[in-house]
Design goal:
Blueprint: H1 3-28, H2 34-38, H3 42-51, H4 53-72, H5 77-98, H6 108-130
Length: about 130
């Protein structure tokens, strides 16, 4: 296995573990995640409350489980690249909307991993088309 593939799979497995764990936990224990919504700006909380906090958390949890599954499946590199970009956008939104505190500072790691995977898969897509 090439070093590039090892890096890709390290990023995929790390992101899959993180999103799989949090997504599954949100689905199983949604009330334990209310704290994450309370830290958001009021206009975002109002949008979530309009849909219902439990509905929002179920969608969030299901999305994160989906992300984890996509990171584990190797047959759709374009979908994986898109999900990596969405994961990076999610981390940026958390950092911008919640701010950096004693919990959110950890979102820099998944942000870097998601961007790294996105750029790695973008590069692989470009080089495979040019051959």
């Amino acid at each position: 296995m090439s070093n590039i593939k090892k890096i890709e799979w390290s990023l995929r497995l790390g992101l899959a573990a993180m999103f799989g764990y949090s997504g599954f936990d949100i689905l199983i224990h949604p009330t334990a995640w209310y704290w994450a919504v309370r830290g958001l700006p009021l206009f975002v909380q109002n949008m979530i409350n309009a849909a219902g906090i439990d509905t929002y958390l179920m969608l969030q949890g299901a999305s994160e489980v989906f992300f984890a599954l996509v990171f584990l499946v190797w047959v759709w590199p374009r979908l994986t690249r898109t999900v990596a970009l969405l994961a990076a956008v999610e981390m940026v939104l958390i950092l911008l909307l919640v701010g950096i505190d004693f919990i959110t500072f950890r979102d820099f790691g998944p942000l870097g991993a998601a961007l790294g995977l996105f750029f790695l898969l973008s590069h692989n897509n470009i080089t495979s088309k040019s051959i």
